Amino acid sequence: MARKANTAPDGAEATIDPSRALVPSVVQVNEARVRRGFWPKVARTAARIPFARDLVAVWYCARDPQTPPAAKGIMLAALAYFVLPTDAIPDVLAGVGFTDDAAVIAAVLSMLGANLKPRHRLRAEETLTRLTSDETESSR
């Protein structure tokens, strides 16, 4: 069924539609999705995904008030795609489940990587070190 242009962007298709990534209502929905689901999913998957540092650095960049709004909107769309339980390749598929997420983050980095500052990468490194050490301690 076709979606009307004035309906709320509540579905996954609005999140991943690049032509709508900067529509204010879509940005708000993506920001809410990322706020709710980002850290729980990172905590569950950080040890299994090789692009975790880039992913978390993008999150810090998207939350930085100095990041331009257009860059934030695109970053939030990419992060919302990572958070979505349904995407092009289901994350539960061993070995390939996160390849689509990695490709989306790689595309964001190639387009908007100049917005990522050393402080974003440093915070990402510190956060992942803390997360993985907490995980190691809890498994003992």
Walk me through this protein's architecture.
- The protein is mainly α and 140 residues long.
- Helices cover 64% and strands 0% of the residues.
- It has six helices and no strands.
- It has helices at 12-16, 24-45, 52-63, 69-83, 99-112, 118-138.
Q: Structural class, from secondary structure content?
A: mainly alpha
The succession of helices and strands, N to C, reads: HHHHHH
Tell me about the largest β-sheet.
none
Total number of helices:
6
What is the secondary structure topology, with strand pairs?
Layout: H1 12-16, H2 24-45, H3 52-63, H4 69-83, H5 99-112, H6 118-138
Helix pairs in contact: 2-4, 3-4, 3-6, 4-5
Summary of the model, kept short:
The protein has helices spanning 12-16, 24-45, 52-63, 69-83, 99-112, 118-138.
Keywords:
mainly alpha; 140 residues; 6 helices
